[in-house]
Amino acid sequence: MYNFSAPFANPAGSPIRELFKYLSEPGMISFAGGYPATDLFDAKGLGQSAEEAFKDSSVCLQYGPTDGLPALKNEIVRLMTQRGVTPSLSEFLVTTGSQQGFDLLLRVLLEPGDTVIVEEPAYPATLQALKLQRATIKSVGIDADGLDVAVLERMLEELPDTQRPKLLYTVPTFANPTGATLSKERRVRLLELAVRHQFFIVEDDPYGDLRFSGAAIPSILSLVDGVPGAKSWVIHFSSLSKIVAPGLRVGWTIGPPEVIHRCIIAKQTADLCSAPWTQAIATKYLESEKLPEHLGHIRTVYRAKCRTLCEELRRQVGDVIEFHEPDGGMFVWARLLDGVNAVDLLKRAIEQKVIFVPGVAFYAAEADHSTLRFSFAAPSVSEITEGVQRFSLALSR
Fold first, then answer.
1. Is the pTM of this model over 0.90?
2. Would you say 372 and 334 are in contact if contact means Cβ atoms under 8 Å apart?
3. Residues 38, 60 within the same domain
4. Which terminus of the chain, N or C, has less C-beta within 10 A?
């Protein structure tokens, strides 16, 4: 009846959000959504910041600059400096969550059919955005040290010029869904490949501050000065969603000024500007210096939750599942043994009042049906223990 555009003729929604209908069922324990724990939000601190912000209601309630409130941009520069990078104001913009930043970037850079490389498995919203942009998606596998750069190098050498990638998307630190972290050596090699083959590295870094064990690894963006020419080929996303509150919808993009300028123009047609009200709250919160202490608390809690999940998986189902225990983030990626299909298992798990995300959601094409993702951030420690017990019952049935 209606003549929709090609990407939206038969669109597929988020496979993870399709599971949210089960969250309203009484007693359901969820390992599914990548939601931070609501009881860890610094509601008091954010409330105080909101009161402070509204003292200048003319800023909160009026339109703001498309690239972000100047005061917030200054606070983000200060935060990024603590992470080893000091961008100039022309090198970044504030977005309505980092997902908007990625959407704007695709609008600016990609034509239908352009090649994009993603790590496999990959964040589903990224795959969804690329498919709607009609990109040609090629995948490179990962291991415990993240993206397999050696495989990537061979792929790049074999691709014809007509399929040279425009960009490569990666979550190098505590990846979603695998929890894997790209080693420093691989990060440097990735930069060298980007310079040689002239493609953008899109570094999505929402989880980097959530390290609760092991030594920190510098972001890809912070390593560009060590590789001549690399700074021109890195675009970095981050946000406050996982470390403060996703409801603020405050993210940012850092990249070459020529790219950022075009993203700002694209954003003008999307929403004019991100909400000045929540930008002002975020500004006051960052100015208050509450974030470092708050992060320490989050890391302590997530460490306990992750260890509980991994210990219970080993104890209760260790003979039928394999997984890698991460050093931070929010996720544990697992593979079922003996040919068990995670989609079929989910049906049994729902009957036992526990849900997870089958791995098929994280593949661009041919999927490993024995894989699945657990998110340990939202449930309590006691719920994690009970949830694994229910998972074990689902497996036995």
1. yes
2. yes
3. no
4. N
